[in-house]
Design a protein that fits this description.
The complex is a heterodimer of chains A (about 250) and B (about 260).
Chain A (H helix, E strand, L loop, with lengths): L3 E12 L2 E13 L4 E5 L6 H9 L6 E6 L2 E2 L7 E4 L12 H12 L3 H14 L15 H14 L4 E5 L7 H18 L2 E6 L2 H7 L2 E5 L6 E6 L11 H15 L6
Parallel strand pairs in A: 3-8, 3-9, 6-7, 7-8
Antiparallel strand pairs in A: 1-2, 1-4, 4-5, 9-10
Chain B lengths: L1 H31 L10 H13 L2 H33 L1 H14 L8 H8 L3 H26 L2 H9 L4 H37 L7 H8 L5 H29 L10
The chains are: A alpha/beta (about 250), B mainly alpha (about 260).
Chain lengths: ~250, ~260
């Protein structure tokens, strides 16, 4: 059974300088609780694709189904984590940010704060529940954003390069934490990145996109036991394989 | 203990130092006999007048009337201005319709409207308050509009993806997101309100008020009363800034890191 199904999705941006393709004829599907990574060169359409799945952009062609239901807009079945640290609401504490979705759902205050605190504990930030975002580091802000996207219990987690702007050390830590959170919550995750090591570390399966206008070039299942060792030979082999796909010129054109 | 207290003292001193210098220069000129005492009174005369007028209840009455008009006019401007600015920021049609009017009206000096408003609404409180409201609304509208435009798209998307409908999006995202600009607009609006109010009180549209006190005092060369009136205007402005705007900012946008103090 599929959880997310993307069928032949195409999107074209209308700009003052004419029509710019965003993504072209993309199809893939995920199983429930699968961790799917999408890698591709800058500008190939990864963010566009994620925004289509999130429901912020309507594709010109093709369709998206989640749990069999066609996606027509944004909805509480999907949690979203953006690349930009500024995604948190500066006027809310970490706890207030995480509780936002539950508040919109009408969950009573005491209950939503208990759930939010639980989510903050999951990302190891319960001590910072009362802190405002500007007092948190970039990595901490992204962890709050993950907790926020999980708090209202969506079935799907969509993540757009959430750790790309972090330093390498923090990023490694974040990846470990995310792998743990995923194991604990069993969400279906679609994770966009252009870092192949990150993809191999996190994913059950990696989809490689071509340069702009993006289509799918290859699908690589990662058959490694978890937790994964980034220094193992197999890990490096997968990395090489993905890099080869990314750098290879497209033959048939 | 002394060490902890001394920075505060130094702070207070550095704030008051320019005033002390100006006061000292004033005293020197006033006492040198260059100008007649009636036109250039020493500070002790001003202080004495200030005390006398206060004790007689005259100055408080003037001040009270002025503050009441200020708060009335500014209050209307704040409510209408923020509402209009946000509407223009959110609705393309409202923006297209109103922006040309607002941006044309904004640079026109408020005083230019005064005779018209006094003819339309009569001499007195109604005309004065409406004029104050009208003139003060411009910076509030413009800044609220800018504030809405400055609300980050990513906040809106995040909120929408978490199920916020239009009304809650407005209350929980647009309003707090635009607040730094809205507060700036209110501060500018209040400054505008002050200027136009004191001026319109001088046009004798009203029987009481600090503007009228200052203007009326010229007939009898009461420069000490004029200076006392100016001092009270300055004190009220300072009090509003220190007791209203700064605490409001410290409690909101500064605490949220959206504005540095
Ligand atoms: N709002 C927009 N209007 C017009 N064109 C756009 C818009 N957003 C993206 N594009 C174009 O669509 C293409 C795909 O952009 P997208 O942001 O999806 O790429 P990306 O893979 O996420 O890149 P990156 O790795 O740099 O984030 C790019 O060529 C870009 O120029
Ligand atoms: Mg992107």
């Amino acid at each position: 059974m599929h959880h997310i199904e993307i069928r032949n999705v195409t999107l074209v941006y209308d700009t003052p300088n004419g029509r710019v393709p965003g993504v072209r004829g993309v199809s893939f599907a995920t199983a429930p609780s699968e961790f799917l990574c999408i890698v591709g060169p800058s500008g190939c359409g990864k963010t566009t694709l994620l925004n289509i799945i999130a429901g912020f952009l309507a594709p010109a062609e093709g369709e998206i189904r989640i749990g069999g239901k066609a996606v027509t807009g944004y909805g509480l079945d999907r949690g979203i984590v953006f690349q930009d640290f500024a995604q948190l609401f500066p006027w809310r504490t970490a706890l207030g940010n995480v509780a936002f979705g539950l508040e919109m759902k009408g969950v009573p205050k005491a209950e939503r704060e208990a759930i939010a605190l639980e989510q903050l504990r999951l990302v190891k930030l319960e001590k910072f529940a009362g802190a405002y975002p500007h007092h948190l580091s970039g990595g901490m802000q992204q962890r709050v954003a993950i907790a926020r996207a999980l708090a209202y219990n969506p079935a799907v987690l969509l993540m757009d390069e959430p750790f790309a702007a972090l330093d390498a050390l923090t990023r490694d830590e974040m990846q470990r934490l995310l792998a743990e959170v995923w194991r604990a919550t069993r969400k279906t995750v679609v994770y966009v990145t252009h870092n192949v090591a990150e993809a191999v570390y996190l994913a059950d399966r990696v989809i490689v996109m071509t340069p702009h206008p993006g289509t799918i070039k290859a699908e690589v299942p990662i058959r490694l036991p978890r937790p994964r060792d980034p220094l193992s030979v197999e890990f490096l082999d997968y990395q090489k394989q993905l890099l080869r796909h990314l750098t290879q010129k497209e033959e048939a054109r | 203990m002394l060490d902890q207290a001394s920075p505060r003292w130094r702070g207070a001193l550095s704030v008051s130092a320019p005033f002390i210098v100006v006061a000292a220069l004033w005293e020197i000129v006033a006492r040198s006999g260059t100008f007649p005492r009636r036109l250039f009174p020493p500070l002790e005369d001003v202080a004495e007048t200030l005390a006398r007028l206060t004790a007689a209840g005259i100055l408080p009455h003037h001040a009270f009337e002025t503050i009441a008009r200020l708060l009335g006019g500014f209050g209307i401007a704040a409510l209408a201005g923020v509402a209009l600015g946000i509407l223009m920021g959110r609705s393309r049609r409202a923006e297209d319709l109103l922006m040309p009017l607002v941006s044309t009206g904004a640079p026109i000096p408020g005083l230019a409207y005064a005779p018209l408003f006094l003819l339309w609404f009569g001499l007195g409180n109604v005309g004065a308050v409406i004029l104050v409201a009208f003139v003060a609304a411009f910076p509030i509208v413009l800044n609220s509009w800018t504030g809405v435009k400055a609300v980050k798209e990513i906040w809106i998307r995040a909120a929408q993806s978490m199920g916020a409908g239009d009304r809650r999006l407005f209350r929980h995202v647009i309003l707090p997101g635009a607040l730094p600009y809205i507060l700036t607009g209110l501060r500018l609006g209040l400054a505008q309100a002050w200027r136009i109010l004191v001026a319109v009180e001088m046009l004798a549209a009203v029987p009481w008020g600090l503007g009228w006190l200052i203007f009326g005092a010229r007939e009898f060369l009461n420069t000490d009363a004029m200076l006392a009136g100016i001092a009270v205007i300055g004190a009220i402005g300072l009090a509003l800034e220190k007791l209203v705007f700064q605490p409001l900012e410290r409690y909101t946008v500064v605490r949220w890191g959206m504005m540095t103090s």
